[in-house]
Amino acid sequence: xxxxxxxxxxxxxxxxxxxxxxxxxxxxxxVRPEAVRALAEEAPHYMGTSHRxxxxxxxxxxxxxxxxxxxxxxxxxxxxxxxxxxxxFWDALCFxxxxxxxxxxxxGEFSAKFAQCAxxxxxxxxxxxxxxxxxxxxxxxxxxxVDVYALCHNETSxxxxxxxxxxxxxxxxxxxxxxxxxxxxxxFDPSEVDVYYFAPQxxxxxxxxxxxxxxxxxxxxxxxxxxxxxxxxxxxISLSVALENSRKDQTYNTPALATIFLAVQxxxxxxxxxxxxxxxxxxxxxxxxxxxxxxxxxxxxxxxxDESARSKVVVTIDFEGVDASTVSAVLRRNGIVDTEAYRKLxxxxxxxxxxxxxxxxxxxALTACIDHVVERLA
Length: 378
Ligand SMILES: *Cc1c(COP(=O)(O)O)cnc(C)c1O
Fold this sequence. Notes:
The protein is an alpha/beta fold.
């Protein structure tokens, strides 16, 4: 509990209003209890065993195949992985994918961070950064001087999602998409992208520390070319080293085995329920519950004005006349956690993950809990 817990109004939400699971954070996000139980069952044969031996390599293979099926990757696309999560992968892209200059669509904390990362890399030219105010999204600007278009499928800090379309020129530019909070929750056409990357502690309901990327044949060619160009690339974040190891169902250095196991559980759960179309529809159902509820309340309004840009997986709701952080603090006391706005956004807002692992009925219950709290705060 925070330092101000004593000033949090003492409101108890009746048990029959509470969701079955109180985790609504955007990452680390709810891990399904079934997946954790499966891990506990397998643990004696899996945890604490060598990542160079068949048991773990089989699980890494299951993750690579499962992601490939989930994302419905075209022939020739490969799934690669390594340690460090998305933030480290941005460095890997600066070293191993961007040839000279990238273009970044910047419209929130995460997309801005990658743009800064490319700006700080002394071997690259200053990136072209196309910005849009938080809560909206920019369009790519075609520029023949760029060799990578850096897009973000879903801005987790603001709850804005994007359509993924390959800019027509230059023809050999690659499209790299940060899909950390989108992969496995939002439908897209993989032929529009060359590198679709994410970490598994969000939509994939696993834990942090790993990056996973689907790469096109053109991206593989670029990775191989840059790796032999003479540019110094640290082995720990080298995409060609990751490619080589991933093809053997391994990582360059030791990964977190539980993270891989839990990610496989989630990927296979989604695939067995109907795959990405099923997950997308489920996220749409959950997010619609919140957007509809907000539009029916005087004190609440969706932050994102353009309805087509409203995220299916991260819902941001502005409050007026009610202090959102107080509401979140009361919810937290009642076991409903991580509904706070993104810390640096600085808005009177709640932010709710509607990832596939989260039950739509629990999202419905959450709205009843918020109503209960707001009525008592008035
Ligand atoms: C969470 C997130 C990141 C950072 O992921 P880490 O694994 O913590 O490095 C990057 N981009 C987006 C869109 C995110 O949601």
